[in-house]
Amino acid sequence: MPKLLTRFSRPQRGPLKGLHPVAHFGVGAGLMVLSGLLIAAHITTIVEVRDVAVPIVSELPRLERRLRALEQQIELTQLHAATRIGSQQEKVEVYAFPEETDVSRLIATFEIVRETLKREGMLSSMSDIDIGEPKNREDGSTSRSLSAEFTVHEDGLKTILLLVRLAGLLTVGDVLSEDELQLLVDRVEQENPAGIVALEQFLAADLLKYAESPKVYEEQLKRSFGSTTFLNAFQNVLRTSLLRDVRILLLHSDLGEILRSYKLWPLQIMAVEEVSISPGSSPKWHSLKLSVLVFSQES
Amino acid sequence: MLKSNTNTPHSLGDVARRTAFSFFLFSLVLTSLLLLSWYLLVPELTHVEVGGTVHGLKDLRGYRDGIHQNIVSLEQQRGSFLVPVENDLYSALKGMKDSRLKFQLIRSDINGVIDDVVPSQNNAIIISNFYYNAAANTIEIRGDVRNVGTRSMTVLAQFAERLHMLEEVIDVNTSRYTRKEDDAIGFFSPFTIRLTIR
Fold this sequence. Notes:
- The structure holds 2 protein chains of 2 kinds.
- By secondary structure, chain A is α+β, with helices and mostly antiparallel strands.
- Chain A has helices at residues 2-9, 21-96, 103-119, 154-166, 172-175, 178-191, 196-203, 207-212, 214-222, 228-240, 242-252, 255-261; strands at 123-126, 130-131, 135-136, 142-153, 270-279, 285-296.
- In chain A, a hairpin with a 5-residue loop joins strand 3 (135-136) and strand 4.
- The longest helix of chain A has 76 residues, at 21-96.
- By secondary structure, chain B is α+β, with helices and mostly antiparallel strands.
- Helices cover 52% and strands 23% of the residues of chain B.
- In chain B, the strands form 2 sheets. In chain B, strands 3, 4, 5, 6 and 7 form a 5-stranded antiparallel sheet that branches. A two-stranded antiparallel ribbon of chain B has the order 1-2.
- Chain B is elongated and about 125 Å long.
């Protein structure tokens, strides 16, 4: 027993214990600093897990579902779009944004507007049409100004301005704003990603043909969706977008049909330059001076 | 016989000498445990398996950003299928054309303001001309305030003030406020108001 106690009380001479106490303190302090750094790294990792990893992990399934739905949609639309894009592009280059302004086509369009509105009692007179010389624009396009004066009823005024608004637009998709398109696409994604093909066909529908028989195109799209989520959004877009005006104004007058029968649709792209509206001699009648720019690609 | 040394005074150096090794041993064990935790335990707890692939904390963000980029590029691709015209100039002109049609909205807002300013009387503010200039982004309205007696200038000021409150209007420039008298319509205040719009 005393031997044992002596062994414990005697300083050991191991490889570590043999070091000087100052060295023990020094190395110990260094290790403590390292421990401190490791504890800080642990804390940082835990905070990162809480702030970064957990939200990302909860977000990933949704993102992956979205990615898969988009891949599926692209696959479905690719084949159909391949044939359609070419014809759409051709229509733009030939009619909507041609190499050169077809003046006779423009004059014929306004002549038909005059005849149709006059027959419907919405226009009492229209002045001569002045067409300016082509001017090169900074953006690379060329514009010609076209101006005319009308004595027109409020509804006729709306029709003329709507026609300017629709000039250069070809499809239903062209008429919808980015927000409206996004709303429809979001609902398609939520409800039935494969329904993108039906939506694509609806958006690719010729605007004038749609205006003539909107129900056919609308029902075709509605058939692809069962629940009310998409249908509500769709009805909302139909009610609030420019499509409503297209349906009301072009469907209820035969202007659209005449433009198509004379092969004047699609119209060349135009934008308002100056508008002057003064009250006419009777209530709801106006004197309208309209100046628009007609754009072409000629250089 | 063992001698107790409890009463023996110890110098500071003695204490330091005796605790040095314990301190060293403690820090060594602590550091070792933390290192083990850092290299074995932490990766085990923070790695996530997504779609059959294990992702660490660092590359999780990159993985998420990668999916985001894919989604954006697929959305663009899908958008090009939905509205498929690849002519930037034509698209820009369509945008420009749309922006020039807001005058119709402003015209109907002005009519709303006219109804609101003198609600009891619908022929107090008469617009004789509405002129929109797309290049200058201005609207000029001409007319007069009548049928309100000597209040015509006050009504005109209220009208100009309300026009300034319209969302699309940046600036309202009113011609001088004046009151005239006419045998047929009584007191009236003619005006030319120029609106600068967004």
